[in-house]
Amino acid sequence: MGNSGSAVKVCTDHQGGINWLSLSPDGQRLLTGSEDGTARLWSTADSQCHGHFQGHESYITFCHLENEAAFTCSADHTIRKWDVMTGQCLAIYRGHTSIVNRILVAKDYLFSGSYDRTARCWSVDKEKQIQEFRGHRNCVLTLAHYSSRDVLEEEEEEEEEEEKVSRDLLVTGSTDCTVKVWWVSSGRCYQTLLGHTGAVLCLILDAPNRELFSGSTDYTIRTWNIVTGEQLKVFKEHQGSVICLELVNRHLYSGSADRTVKCWLVDTGERIQTYKAHKHSVSTLKYHAGILFTGSGDACARAFNSRSGVLQKIFRGHKFIINCIQIHNELLYTASHDGTLRIWDIRGICKRNKRRLKKERSAQGRGSQKGSLSRLFNNKVGCMVQRENGE
């Protein structure tokens, strides 16, 4: 059973709830976007606030951090780009006519999804809209991006001659119950994925395997072939909306309003584990070193052994829902609607888990060696014996 942990540090600089937390690719900085209309930049080395980005006229819904630039989107209908070193606003992207609730940065593109029912593509370096994706009947909640080079064979690419200029595709999930795939260069809808009967809240892409996973308020997760648009599997065991997804080594983790996380084998669709103990919806999750970390509407973060499902630790201290978590250098960062960023030391859990994994591997190795000797003996005497231990 898990024990309660106390935070190493509590950062209280924001004057409103923190809606999102982003970690830079080099792991040196964190960015928080808040209800107070500002974003703050934090160093992972000393946990101090080293930047305060002000300029939005309403609350920040989402943020994204690169090594040298930060991006924020807001209920003021705009997206802003910031210089990480100076805090200066480098660009304002205008065009949406309602709340911008999600952004995604890929290559030289900036993508955005809005309550105005559109997604848009912008040039990162210029305050210029490149493309508008119009076709959803309700707001666009979630985004994913990939290149057709990642999924199409050469002969299939030749069939898409009109899209030769750019092979980038944008995936959008909407409250209209659909997922759409768009050619970035033309704005043309390549696929509409039909099957969900509720809003699509989360997407996760596995381009090398040509698969897309979508979670919905209809309580299901669906797997799609992103080339053909075919629905491959439906995962149905949740009893509430599917809020967040994480894909690790062909294992899919899903967090739900039913207060559980479930682990599924992607290749078979089998549910192999359920992680309980949450007293409210699971709002965010992150896998790290054999441990599943979750954030919940009950204001607690939790750590589970990903294999056994055993609760290893509860992180208490927040007052309201935990909206986002990040992990770096065996520190857990949790951002909450209570306006605080809390930092927790998870070295002890990680160490224990590494020891456990080492023991398991050692036991498996001994079992394998024993099995080999046994098979050798059975072959000599001409017997074929099936054993329950997999020999």
What does this structure look like?
This protein has 391 residues and is mainly beta. The chain has a single domain, classed as Methylamine Dehydrogenase, Chain H (7 Propeller). The protein contains two helices and 33 strands. The protein has helices spanning 154-158, 347-381; strands spanning 3-5, 9-11, 18-23, 29-34, 39-43, 49-53, 60-65, 69-74, 79-83, 89-93, 100-106, 109-114, 118-123, 128-134, 140-147, 168-174, 179-183, 189-193, 200-206, 211-216, 221-225, 231-235, 242-248, 251-256, 261-265, 271-275, 282-288, 291-296, 301-305, 311-315, 322-328, 331-336, 341-345. The strands form eight sheets. It has a five-stranded mixed β-sheet with strand order 1-30-29-28-27. Strands 2-33-32-31 form a four-stranded antiparallel β-sheet, with no helix packed on it. A four-stranded antiparallel β-sheet has the order 3-4-5-6, with no helix packed on it. InterPro entries: WD40/YVTN_repeat-like_dom_sf (IPR015943), WD40_PAC1 (IPR020472), WD40_repeat_CS (IPR019775), WD40_repeat_dom_sf (IPR036322), WD40_rpt (IPR001680), WDR86-like (IPR044715). This is WDR86 protein. It comes from Eolophus roseicapilla. WD repeats lie at residues 11-43, 93-132, 169-192, 193-234, 235-274, 315-347.
